[in-house]
Amino acid sequence: MSSATQKLPQSLPVAASKGGPLPAGPVPVPKHVAVIMDGNGRWASARFLPRVAGHREGARAVRRTIEAAIQSGVEWLTIYAFSSENWQRPASEVLDLTGLLRHYLKNEIAELHSNGVRLHFIGDRMRFETDIGNALADAERLTAGNTRLNLVVALSYGARDEIASAARSLAIAAKEGRIDPAAIDEAMLASSLSTAGMPDPDLVIRTSGEMRLSNFLLWQAAYAELVFMDVLWPDFGPVHFAEALTEYARRERRFGARPA
Ligand code: IPE
Ligand code: IPE
Ligand code: MG
Is 215 among the residues known to form the active site? Predict the structure, then answer.
C-alpha cells in the first residue's frame, strides 16, 4: 500500500467498491448484463495465431457466458459481437467474422432454443448478406416463446446511429401528424430505439483492459455500473462472470439521488 493510500480515512466511500466488503443482506443480481467482448485479436497475437483463431475461441467464451448468466439468475444478456465501426476492418477479417456468424447461426441456434434462450438482434442487419438476415429473423421467430434467458446480440450495432434513427422516425411521425412534437419525451425516444421493451442494462462488462464504451448502448447504459476487466475475451469464463457480479453487488447505485 502506498503512503498516499494509507492517508485515506477508512470511512471514505471509495472503500465500498473494488474489493470492499459486500453489503449485508441478499446480494443484488443484475437483471440485465451487457458485455463488450474485446481482446480476441490480442489473444491470438500472443499465441502467434491468426486473428480469426481468437474470434473462434471468443465464440466458445460466448457459450460459457450464456451458461453462467443462466446459472446466476440473470434474465437479460446483451453481447456486443460486431460494431458499426468494425466494417472498417480489413475485408479479410470482416469475411472471417461474417463466416463465423453464419456458422454460429447454423449450428448453435437449435441448442440455444432447447436451453430456453430467446434471441434478439439489434443493429443494422440490412448490411449483412440476405442469408444471414434471414437466419437472424428465423432464430428470433423460433425462440420467441422462450423465457429462461433473453440473449440480445448486437450486430453491426452503433449507438449513435440507433439514436439518430429514433430521432428520424419521431421526426417523420411528427411531420405526418401522428405524434405531437411537444409530447416527445424520454419514454417515447426509448421506445423508438432497437431495444424498445427491453430493460436497461444494470451492469456493463468490458474485457481486455480497454476502458471505453466504443459506441455501445449509449442511451441505455446511462446508469449502468461499468466493470472493466483485464482478461481477454477468449479467456473469459464463469469465474470472471461471477467476479463482475460480485463487484456489481458492492456498488451503491444512487441514480443521482441522495442515499438515505
Ligand atoms: C473483439 O476482439 C471482437 C470484435 C470486435 C469483433 P478484437 O478483434 O477487437 O480484439 P483486439 O481488441 O484487437 O484484441
Ligand atoms: C468494440 O470493440 C466492439 C466489439 C466488441 C464488437 P473494438 O475492438 O471494435 O473497439 P475499439 O476499436 O477498441 O474501441
Ligand atoms: Mg478490440
Answer: no
User: Is there a catalytic annotation at residue 86?
Assistant: yes
Question: What is the reported pTM?
Answer: 0.93
Cell of 146: 422462450
Please report, as a single letter, which amino acid is at residue 58: G
Distance 214 CA to ligand 3 centre (A): 9
Quick one: CA torsion of 36, 41, 45, 46, rounded to 10 degrees? 10
Give every CB contact of residue 111 below 8 A, 6+ residues apart in sequence.
Answer: none
The pLDDT profile of the chain, 260 residues, written as one tens digit per residue, is: 343 444 444 433 343 456 677 878 888 999 999 999 999 999 999 999 999 999 999 999 999 999 999 999 999 999 999 999 999 999 999 999 999 999 999 999 999 999 999 999 999 999 999 999 999 999 999 999 999 999 999 999 999 999 999 999 999 999 999 999 999 999 999 999 999 999 999 999 999 999 999 999 999 999 999 999 999 999 999 999 999 999 999 999 999 998 77
Domains of the chain listed by start with CATH number: 29-250 (3.40.1180.10)
